[in-house]
Amino acid sequence: MTNAGIIDRARQQGRTVLSEVEAKQLLAEAGIAVVEARLAKERDEAVALAKEFGYPVALKIVSPQITHKSDVGGVQLNLGTAEEVTAAFDAIVAAAKRAAPDAPIEGVSVQRMAEPGIEVIVGMTMDAQFGPVLMFGLGGVLVEVLKDVAFRVVPITARDARQMMRDIQGFPILQGYRGQEPADLEALEALLLKLSAFIEEHAEVTELDLNPVFAYPNSAVAVDARIVLAAPTA
Predict the structure, then answer these.
(1) pLDDT tens for residues 203-218?
(2) Domain end: 113, 129, 144, which one?
């Protein structure tokens, strides 16, 4: 499905929050590296996708009314066999139904487990005065504890992208702190620039989060993605 098709379908269904599967498809078509996630409506589909991606995999509930998937038991990680995927599919769906009995459940998303890297967060929020503002910082729990993030108004330049990374106090971690391999700063710069272009092209996007992004010595990839659309005008 094309970018326009994904957004149009969400509009027709009265949704402002895209599923992870939809968000990642939009971003991938914009040239942003993501860990692919695909929808499985039945347990057999989940097993087939897991085999296609290669183990281990992660399963997450897909429902337009469940945004905090972990809070309802809607996430299972590091699944290494078809039996584990089958059991996880049933457990996730059952947990979601208990937590949100009225929420429609489309199925589960299936994606391969990404190799751990340096976790960063990239996002966008809408400022009442300046419009879309891009954010960059250390990801995972660090972003909640340290609030170590940098901001730039969209659109950004290559110089802006480089400076955003250097503005955070945790930049030495990206450079390779105490013998740790450094992150690929050029890959992170490219991600920021592509995300800025994506936001410019899609004025209907009002909120976006890539958390975590795993930064490796020779690449960077978004593991999870969230996109919120503007509410339709009357």
Answers:
(1) 999 999 999 999 999 9
(2) 113
